[in-house]
Amino acid sequence: MPFAINRNNLDNSGAPSNEELRIHYETAGDLDGAKGVLVFAHGFTLDYRLWREQLKYFAPEYFAVAFDSRGHGLSDAPVTGYSRDHRLTDLLAVVNELKLKKFHLIGLSMGGATSIGFAIDHPECLESLTLVSSGVTAYNPTRHQDALTKLAREKGVEAARERWIKSTLRYYNDKPGDAQELLETMMKEHSAAPWQDPNRGNYQHRNDLELLQDMKVRTLILVGAKDLNFIPMGERLNAAIPDSKLEVIPDVGHIINLEIPERFNERLKSWIENAA
To answer: How many domains is the chain partitioned into structurally?
Structure first.
């Protein structure tokens, strides 16, 4: 279900714009009478479909929401405006559109970094925070995205997309289920606009990692044991967040909810029930 929000500072110059940006979201379950509300934020080049099994699983008892950040899925893809602050604007707009007061926030990778920013700025809105293979603004565990940005500028976005898909899907070649097919579909349908953003690499960010010591949101941090680049990040987040728990999940990589959906759903349900 798309809706429109005002575009703010999309050219990174500080000049506001009155143009509207359409943000897409999907919901499952009935808000009235729900045991709780869950909001899911996806990773880079993915979209709300990343969370389809979670929406299906939680719908009978909970109200679940998954949205597409700008430039992803069915949301609009402006020429510029792809900083963490812009993604945070998208998340806040969805929350306001649905009039959500308190909810559990779950973010994967890029969506985790967005969720951390939201938790710092709006802790009063959160019942709990779940970070899955999460990054954090001002800390880059891998330079792979920098290389892809350079490739997109020198040889075009399709060259970057091809390399990104090949490197991501290599891990899933021998994995059961349809995770590989879904990931490939989402990445092929991605707008590629963030790679073409003329301001990419020039956005000014606060250091969220330094602010986490004062964050008062109960937090679960999940990292796959095979996701070697993100284990140190999970450890740093766990050390920084006062009320947090780190779990390294055996035999899985970066996109845990697609690799082991049943185990992921059960762990998340247990977490949010105990956090409520």
So the answer is: 1
CA distance 18 to 21: 10
Question: Which domain CATH number covers 77?
Answer: 3.40.50.1820
Digit-coded pLDDT (tens) for 179-213 = 899 999 999 999 999 999 999 888 888 899 999 99
CB 87 within 8 A of CB 110: yes
C-alpha span between 87 and 93 (Å, rounded): 10
The verdict on pTM exceeding 0.90 is yes
| Residue numbers of the domain that contains 222 | 2-142+205-275
Please write the tens of the pLDDT for every residue from 215-242: 999 999 999 999 999 999 999 999 999 9
At residue 40, φ and ψ (nearest 5 deg) are -115, 135
